[in-house]
Amino acid sequence: MIELTPALTITWVAIPFFIGFSISLLPQLDRLLAFVVTLVSIAYAGLLFVAQSPQQLELIDNFGVTLIADSLSGFFILTNGLVTLAILLYCWRSDKTAFFYTQLILLHGSVNAAFLCADFVSLYVALEVISIASFLLVTYSRSARSIWFGLRYLFISNTAMLFYLVGVALVYKATDSFRFEGLSVAPPEAIALIFLGLLVKGGIFVSGLWLPQTHTEADTPVSAMLSGVVVKVAILGLVRCALVVPEVEPIVRMMGVATALFGVGYAVFEKDSKRMLAFHTVSQLGFVLAAPPVAGFYALTHGLVKAALFLVAGSLPSRNFKELNQQPIARSLWLMGVIAAFSISGLPLLAGFGAKTLTVKALLPWQAIAMNIAAVGTAISFAKFIFLPQSGAVTAPEKVKNLWPSMVILLGGLFIANGFYPEAYSLENIAKALITIVIGWALYLAVIKKISLKLPRMFERLEHLIGVMSLTAVGLFLLAILLTVPEGAGG
Amino acid sequence: MLEACVFFTVLCGFFGLIFKKNLVMKIIAMDVMSTGTIAYYVAAAARGGLMVPIAENPEASLTAGSYADPVPQSIVLTAIVIGFSIQSLMLVGVMKLAKDNPTLEVEAIERSYLP
C-alpha cells in the first residue's frame, strides 16, 4: 500500500501539467497519456479515502502556499477523475486533435490543484488557469459563435477575479496571511468581494446567469466537463470557507437555497435540453452549498449524473424537447438518460438518493421547505427526459457506440457510490423520495407539459451580467455586515 | 487618499466595462480595472515603509516599519502575468471575431448570437 506523503501529493499535482504539455510534443500518444493521468487521479482520490488523517502541506510560511488533502477533496478529485475518464473514452474514436487533449489534461490538472488549495492566492492562480483552459476548450470549434461565448466567459470571470483579488488584499492587510481562516477577522467588504468572485465563478444564483449559455454553446464533451467538474472548484472554495469560518456559513447556506430555487425555476420552463441541464447545474450546486459538511458526496453524484446527461443529450437527434416529443428515440439511448435522471431525482437504488438524504439531514430547519420545493422542481425538469417517447425499433445513431464505455463508468459509479451511505435506506426516507418524485411527475404531466412560458433572456447580456455583479457585491456586503457586526460589538 | 485614488481607478474600469459599447474598449476598461487592483497591492505593500526589503549586510538589524512588505508584491507579480495572458488571449479572440463582426459592437454581436 502506498503511503500518502507530501512528495506524493506534489508529484500528483505536477503530473497533469507535465504530461499535458508532453502531449503537444508527442501527439501520437495523446489519448494514452491522458488516460494515464486520469487513472492516477482516481487512484490518488482512493488514497485520500483510505488515509486516516487529512494531510496539510505548508510551503514557506503562513503567507506561502497551503494545501489540504482530506476526504472532502477526495470526493471532488474522484469526480474530476471519473468525469475526465468518461469524456476521454467518449472522444476516443473522434477526430479531436492533440490540442484538445492537451487542454483537457491541463484543465483536469488545474481543477485537481484547485481542489487542494487552502489559501486564497493559490486558489486564485488555479481559477485563472481554469479560465484559460476552459476558454480554449469552449472555442475549440473556432466558430465565431463559440469565440463570442468564450470571450463573454473570460470577461465575466476575469472581472469577478479582479474583485476577488481586492478582497484577498483586504484579508492580507487584516491578518498578514492568505489562509481561509483569515476571513473571520477580515472586514465585511473583504467577505463580500471574495464571495462575489467565487459565486460568479461557481455560477451561483443571479451571478450565475452567464453559465447556461456558455455550457450550451460548448461541444458536448466540453459541456460535460464544465458542468460536471469545473464549476465545483469555486464551490469547494466556498464550502471550505464555510467550514473553517462559522461566521460566513449562513451566507453560504442562504446562497445555496437561493440558487437551488432560482436554477430550478428556469430549468422547469426551459425547452432546450442542454440549456435545461445547464440551468439545472445552477440549481444542484445549491444543494451542494446548502449543507457544507456533507458537500462532497452530493458533488460526486451530481458530477457523474450531469456528465452522463450531457453526453446523452449530445447524441439525441434534436435539442428541442418539442421536436423530441414528436418522434421516438432509440431505446438504448433512452435507458441511459433515464438511469441518470432517476439518480438525480433521488430514486432509491442510485447514489442520488443517498446524497439527497444525507444533504436533507444536514439542512437547518429554515432551509428544509425551500430545498424540498427544489427537489420537486428537479423531478419535474427530469420528467422531460423520462417521458420522451422511445421505441426498440429505432436504431441508435452511430455515435452511441462511443457512449457505452463512458456510460459504464458514470452510471456504474452511481451504483457503487450508493455504498457510501447505506443508512439512507429507511422506510421513511424511501417513502419521502418516492412521494417527491410522484408529485414532480404529476405536476409535469398535468401542468408544465402543456404551458409554454418563455422566460426573458435580457439578463444574459454581457452588460447586465457585469452590472449584476455590483448588485451582488452590495447584497453580500449587507449580509456580511448583518452577520459579523454583532459578534464584533460583543468582542 | 492614495487608497481612494486606487479605488477610483478600479471603479473607472468597472464602469467602462459596463458602459463602453465596443469590445476593444471593454478590454481596455478591464485593463484599467486590473491596473487599479495591482496598484492596491502595491499600496498595501508600502504600508510599513518604502525601502526595498534587502538587508545590505547581515548584521544590519531590520527595524520594523521602514521596509516594504515583499509578499503582496510577489503575489501581484503573478496576477500581472495572468492578467496579461488573459488579455492577450481576449485580443486574439476579438481579432477572429472581427472577421464576422467588423464593428465589434457588443449589442450587434449579442443580437445575432443570443436567440
Sum up the structure in keywords.
heterodimer, A: 491 residues, mainly alpha, two-stranded antiparallel sheet, globular, B: 115 residues, 4 helices, elongated
What does this structure look like?
The complex is a heterodimer of chains A (about 500) and B (about 120). In chain A, strand 1 (about 55-60) and strand 2 (about 65-70) form a beta hairpin. In chain A, helix 2 (about 30-50) packs antiparallel against helix 3. In chain A, strands 1-2 form a two-stranded antiparallel sheet. A two-stranded parallel sheet of chain A has the order 3-4. With about 500 residues, chain A is an all-alpha fold. Chain A has one domain. In chain A, about 60% of the residues are buried. Chain A is built from 20 helices and four strands. Helices cover about 75% and strands about 0% of the residues of chain A. Chain B is mostly helical and about 120 residues long. Chain B has one domain: Orthogonal Bundle (Helix Hairpins). In chain B, helix 1 (about 1-20) runs antiparallel to helix 2 (about 25-45) and helix 2 packs antiparallel against helix 3. The radius of gyration of chain B is 20 Å and the shape is elongated. Chains A and B meet through helix 5, helix 6 and helix 20 of A and helix 1, helix 2, helix 3 and helix 4 of B.
Main sheet characteristics of chain B: none
Q: What is the N-to-C succession of helices and strands of chain B?
A: HHHH
State the distance separating the first and last CA atoms of chain A: 49 Å
Number of strands of chain A: 4
Question: What's the overall geometry of chain A?
Answer: globular
State which percent range the strand residues of chain A make up: under 5%
Rg of chain B, Cα atoms, Å: 20 Å
Shape of chain B: elongated
Number of strands of chain B: 0
> If you compute it from the alpha carbons, what radius of gyration of chain A comes out, rounded to the nearest whole angstrom?
21 Å
CATH topology of chain B: Helix Hairpins
Mean pLDDT of chain A: 90
